[in-house]
Amino acid sequence: MIHANNPGPALRLYSQNVNSLKRKLGTLRTHAGELAEFDALCFVETKMAPGLPTDSELQLGLEGFTWFRRDRTANGGGVACAVKASLSPVHRPDLETDCESLVVQLGSGRAAYLAICYRPPSQNEATQKIADLLRGLHATGHPFLLTGDLNLPELTWEDGEPTYRSRTARAELFIDALTTCEAEQSVTAPTRGGNFLDLVVTRGGAAHSRVRDRIFDADHEAVETRFTVDLGVPPRVTRTRVYNYKRADFAALRQSLRLLPWSVLWDFNVNDATMMFYDLTFAAIQDFVPLVELRRKYPPWYDRTVRDLLKRKEMAQKRKKTGLFNVPFGRVDTVKNGLGVRVPKLVNEFLNKYPDEDFFQPSLHCTARIRAYARGLGTCMT
What we know:
This protein is an alpha+beta fold. It folds into three domains: 10-228, 4-Layer Sandwich (Deoxyribonuclease I, Chain A); 240-293, no CATH class; 296-381. Helix content is 32%, strand content 22%. Residues 1-7, 356-371 and 373-382 have low confidence and may be disordered. Residues 16-211 form the Endonuclease/exonuclease/phosphatase domain.
């Protein structure tokens, strides 16, 4: 589903009431490959105490994601989300209200907001706070998506429009907020029993949600959403760290794995045993497989036009030495002038577009001829 005003690619989101993420870290890691296909993971009723589990424990298997969380206690409540780092996620507590909510800004160009909410069934007053959250997101003027377990069983949404099973004050308050914000709700199938408890509310982008098989063992089904919104051009990633298996000490790694007390795993349930297995394995890998930084081979402004001009310059210089001026490649001065116009333009465009890019590091100019010519341009590089 594509919206005319939002031609960007669709973001894929997975959301579920997991009823204790802390106890299901094994499931999180076992299904990390499947979950990594989504752009954002949204969880409610995480039941995590502050700092337990740690962010590094949540990160295992999902290294490309940034985690955000709002914990209550280990016995109930709590919301969390993991967003791909390529979306430049930023926590926005200034947009959150006193309800159990979490707001994350997506995109460094045109911003959009992702909000996760949980309303406990006994807290009717939290509906007003969720309505205030919706109005606050609407006031920013940016697209937003709000998802979570709102516990409003008196509303059904089979045809995409709300129908009252019973007209309650909290249901009317929620519908009034949707109308005021010109927002839409896209879940059209029950998520627990016959009730529509887990909802997806959007404005400013096209959303298509479907209830799917849950990954985490809980009494709520999962919701998968495709949210089409234009976030602008993503920032450039200049470096990344990967394992350098060529320099790994595999003999020591095998010996370390042999000496690990694997028998203790039998004393735990499957989720805890899986979590411990990953912890022990990744700890051994990090000890004996070094990390290496991948660096960009060419400067970011080096495109096909510059490459072709450099080739023509070299060919023209060779022909000049042999006295062959009357050739299709033209004179050396003509080609150098072409480079002198093209390269400064590309460099200035790059600096204006990415002012925070660490552009002048020598590692970005590992090709000697590019580095030498860039120095010769002088004024455009300083």
